Amino acid sequence: xxxxxxxxxxxxxxxxxxxxxxxxxxxxxxxxxxxxxxxxxxxxxxxxxxxxxxxxxxxxxxxxxxxxxxxxxxxxxxxxxxxxxxxxxxxxxxxxxxxxxxxxxxxxxxxxxxxxxxxxxxxxxxxxxxxxxxxxxxxxxxxxxxxxxxxxxxxxxxxxxxxxxxxxxxxxxxxxxxxxxxxxxxxxxxxxxxxxxxxxxxxxxxxxxxxxxxxxxxxxxxxxxxxxxxxxxxxxxxxxxxxxxxxxxxxxxxxxxxxxxxxxxxxxxxxxxxxxxxxxxxxxxxxxxxxxxxxxxxxxxxxxxxxxxxxxxxxxxxxxxxxxxxxxxxxxxxxxxxxxxxxxxxxxxxxxxxxxxxxxxxxxxxxxxxxxxxxxxxxxxxxxxxxxxxxxxxxxxxxxxxxxxxxxxxxxxxxxxxxxxxxxxxxxxxxxxxxxxxxxxxxxxxxxxxxxxxxxxxxxxxxxxxxxxxxxxxxxxxxxxxxxxxxxxxxxxxxxxxxxxxxxxxxxxxxxxxxxxxxxxxxxxxxxxxxxxxxxxxxxxxxxxxxxxxxxxxxxxxxxxxxxxxxxxxxxxxxxxxxxxxxxxxxxxxxxxxxxxxxxxxxxxxxxxxxxxxxxxxxxxxxxxxxxxxxxxxxxxxxxxxxxxxxxxxxxxxxxxxxxxxxxxxxxxxxxxxxxxxxxxxxxxxxxx
Length: 689
Hints:
Structural class: alpha/beta
Number of domains: 3
Helix content: 40-55%
CATH architecture of the largest domain: 3-Layer(aba) Sandwich
Distance between the termini: 52 Å
Low-confidence stretches: none
CATH topology of the largest domain: Alkaline Phosphatase, subunit A
Oligomer: single chain
CATH class of the largest domain: Alpha Beta
């Protein structure tokens, strides 16, 4: 809204420019302050170019937002004409403004009513609609309109009643001392209201914080600083006199340099831009909003990820099947009762790792850890929806295989994890990608594609093939069979979902039945995590780190792999170097890899180390997970800790983890504590050095 001072004069650019100038300079200064806070916060030792670019990325987003906010607020203030309003509200020489007090109370009550209505409506609609988006959206609108109508109808009479009450109380206050200052002056009302709102907000936050779960408020600090600078610049604009134009020129120049640095980095230094996205939350948000992160990542050459090739090595086709939510002890290779003939046959002709442990108990933490080769507490990224958007500086298994000359294909469930719109990065390196939630349909599509590829390349030179399939069925076992009412039903319903997942495996692998045995692919079947079925009081996963949730199948079969069973404890962070080794490459090492190749164990090149195999798992705090729990397995012993309480189990003799033996084996406890602490401290080491 145009202020009244401009309405009384012909519109002129110089006049309009002088009115806009304070907001423009204030917005520039606020944007620079926000960007600098983002750039200089954290442990990163950034180069000057990275600091300038970080500031520029943030400023590109913050400057227009702050300018819009400043102009809007100034327009509203000008329209309300506060000086005239104050004169109208003050009723006597003592400065009493009871009508203001009345209306402020009404506004506060109306806002509280809206908050209460929205809160209650959420629970009511959750019960009525099972939280379906469309009914909830309409329902929330109805609740909001109803609350608004009631608040509007009651506002005027209630405001008048409260003003009358304030007037009477103030009159009694001043009855014996006519010269006494009013209790309800504008300043006292504003200060009192601010204090009251702050106190109520603090109380509400203290009440709700524990119920809301983990919330990171760090993202709000930078914008708060920017808003503070915006307000301060407006307040001090006219006090600077002529020097304000110098300040304006400096702010404009600094903004220009920062924005130019941002565009330079985005165009010419993609690796620096990716580092800024990964380390700086506000700049990362700006990059996501204004640029295409996937395009920036695509500018990084695959040649950087090319693995070393062993001179005498072959490059077999490799098929990796990750099945969501499979606990090992329910599958046939681990004496489970689920009908899984496909996995049973694979285990009989291949290698079964009896003690394989997932890096975490939830997909968004385990899958990235498995496909990058890092412990879950060292994988960088941001939670989007139910998935983790991995830091684009991480290199995934499919990227390494593609850089090594493999054709790559992915058949995945689901869109939220692997779809192009999710931008999780988990699909990077997969040249051919198909996404389908129904596992059997996904397997049929994979079968058709694989058979057609074999037909087209028959008798021709071909690249080796890496296929990754992710299957969902066991994750949604209650959707498949319904909610169980007894422990027996719980076991049976879950096993039924495992049977469906096995059908997906059989259908997919049937595409290779026409090949000669020496041309068959190496097939790897594993899972991202397990599932609690009532053990330790937990009905599902993502709640603890007992075997039911992190001990998973790990079965391999194919040319060069002799049947056998391995009892050495291993981690699925070993997957990347193992696959690379089996594919004929030198396994990756260095700070970007925590796993070790298991190929020597698989091929018999080395014997088991029954006491030395190590697996680390962790619950990472995020949107639905409180975190704070970690475990380490070494040999047959497993330690679980929340930082203050320790549980020690012999997972070979006590796979159900019923007997905490930490008091019986103090030496083992001390050793595993040190090992666990070392794993936790390792999270401080950058995987990108």
